[in-house]
Write a structure and sequence with these properties.
By secondary structure, the protein is α/β, with parallel strands linked by helices. The chain contains 16 helices and 15 strands. Strand 1 and strand 2 form a beta hairpin. The protein starts with a strand and ends with a helix.
Length: about 475
RNA sequence: GGCGAGUUGGCGGAAUGGCUACGCAACGGAUUGCAAAUCCGUACCAUACCGGUUCGAAUCCGGUACUCGCCUCCA
């Protein structure tokens, strides 16, 4: 099956063909770990997770290498750790490690709730500092970088193609520059490869003194080590195109002039809230964790994120949440009696995904399967897209069926007051009961965290037992 | 100011020249102990605007308006 992907480097949709037929290599910029991931951070994770799944399907699971890095060297992390370290008595170094480890744990938890698989490799920048130093040395030796005032800077004029990835000219960028240029820069667009650390900040020994790497070189070094000089796909949010990806590409091309670095660049659009980009600095963000706490299922978020084409901006609204919930509830009802593994992903869904991840089109195909009553295909295809996957607490299904048995008895002796109460209580626990001709059926509504669901169900069961006991005594 | 993306019914959102998908929401009826689901029906009579090419345009070309993103840390 052929996959077409939009290449933001060329501005065209291109047929995807890996550089090596036996190996598909993809690098995506991952989180900077200092805080909870918001729904905007989740978008690339979900989008490229779906691409990962599609590539694995097309090229074989073992052939696809997906690297999503973890940026754990960053001044935002240092600042956050400093706030926490003050007064705690811990060293800054220990606090940084604690913050980054904890945030990585949160990230995995939240992405897991969204049905995001772990990538093949998840390198931490702190484990690749020596590779970064090597690359910086090579760039200096090749005349693409210079040392100034304890910093090492990339010399943008030494790379005439600078700007070609984001397709903008140096002149335009200079005209629009809004930021004060550091005095040690020879040219205003030059960017930091290495910067000095004072004794309080984390630092590594280098030929230029104790310091830490700039953000852009982290990705260049990690992709080089894990994927090689040339690889197939580089992804990330559209806000990273400039300067992050432009700089990354410049460094890597200059360090390895004979290689192609990333052939295909993919950028997802931004998530907006009330017409504004969701971002930490604007403070208008919704974290995945917070939404889970409020009872929103991870798959509901995933559904919304995939409901708009990845290159488009996406508006996060209450209305879309309602729609997602309603559709997923419906699909759960339709697929409640089928095993998803019986069928593969439907061809129509795959065709849509293979066309530059046309997820809205794929959703339509899912709706068509639902309308045609192809429940097994719907279950399998939805599962392929990472939907209808939520695991239920152990023992829940058994207890629910016990309750429904009692409820059916109540209904058959027309004790509707009790049977309606049971239905309401179950609904409250995320279990939707529907009465068909003979007996009732139920499906599980997607919920945020399932904590407490089992407890609620057990409470219903308990109340029924108490009631039965008192009736037995009374009778 | 530069660069880029976009504007399709109440909402979301496909479709790159051939009767404008699909979903959500709404309304009426059947059905139901009540709900839900299902079935039947209704309505919203949608391609930002102006011009061009064409037998035929949401789609191609030119222009206008508006929205958003990037140019600064950002997914």
């Amino acid at each position: 099956m052929k996959i077409a992907l939009w290449n933001s480097r060329t501005g065209r949709k291109e047929e995807f063909e890996p550089l090596r037929p036996d190996r598909v290599r993809m690098y995506v910029c991952g989180p900077t770990v200092y805080d909870r991931a918001h729904i905007g951070n989740a978008r690339p994770a979900v989008v490229f997770d779906l691409l990962f799944k599609l590539l694995r399907h097309c090229f074989g699971e073992a052939q696809v290498v997906y690297v999503r890095n973890i940026t754990d060297i960053d001044d935002k992390i240092n600042n956050r750790a400093r706030e926490l370290a003050d007064g705690s008595g811990d060293s800054l170094r220990a606090t940084i490690r604690r913050v980054t480890d904890e945030t990585i744990g949160w990230f995995h938890e939240d992405m897991g709730a969204l049905g995001v698989m772990l990538p093949t490799h998840e390198p931490r920048a702190t484990d690749y500092v020596s590779e970064m130093i090597e690359m910086i040395k090579a760039l200096i030796a090749a005349g693409h970088a210079y040392v100034a005032d304890g910093h090492v800077l990339f010399d943008t004029p030494s790379y005439p193609q600078y700007g070609s990835l984001s397709r903008r000219s140096l002149k335009d960028m200079q005209a629009g520059a809004r930021v004060e240029v550091a005095p040690y820069k020879a040219n205003e667009l030059d960017f930091v490869l290495w910067k000095p650390s004072d004794s309080t900040l984390p630092g590594w020994d280098s030929p230029w003194g104790r310091g830490r790497p700039g953000w852009h070189i982290e990705c260049s070094a990690m992709s080089l080590k894990l994927l090689g000089e040339s690889f197939d796909i580089h992804g990330g949010g559209s806000d990273l195109l400039f300067p992050h990806h432009e700089n990354e590409a410049a460094q890597s091309f200059c360090a390895h002039p004979d290689a192609s670095f990333a052939r295909l660049w993919m950028h997802n659009g931004m998530v907006r809230v009330n017409g504004q980009k969701m971002s930490k600095s604007l403070g208008n963000f919704l974290t995945v964790s917070e939404l889970l706490d409020r009872g929103m299922a991870g798959e509901t978020m995933r559904f919304i994120l995939l409901g708009t084409h990845y290159r488009q901006q996406l508006d996060w609204t209450a209305r879309r949440v309602e729609e997602a919930r309603s559709v997923l509830g419906e699909w759960r009802r339709i697929t409640r009696d089928v095993a998803a593994d019986d069928a593969g992903c439907h061809r129509d869904v795959l065709d849509m995904l293979a066309d530059d991840l046309n997820t809205p089109g794929a959703m339509s195909a899912l709706h068509r399967l639902a309308a045609q009553g192809c429940s097994a295909e719907l279950a399998a295809s939805a599962k392929f897209m990472g939907l209808l996957n939520s695991a239920l607490p152990d023992g829940l299904a058994g207890r629910v069926s016990e309750i429904l048995k009692v409820r059916d008895q109540m209904r058959s002796c027309r004790n509707f007051a009790v049977s309606d109460t049971i239905r309401d209580s179950l609904q409250d626990a995320g279990i939707v009961v529907q009465d068909t001709a003979g007996r009732s059926k139920c499906h599980f509504e997607p919920m945020g965290r399932y904590d407490g669901q089992l407890a609620k169900v057990e409470k219903v069961l308990e109340e029924l037992e108490v009631m039965a006991a008192s009736e037995a005594r009374g009778g």
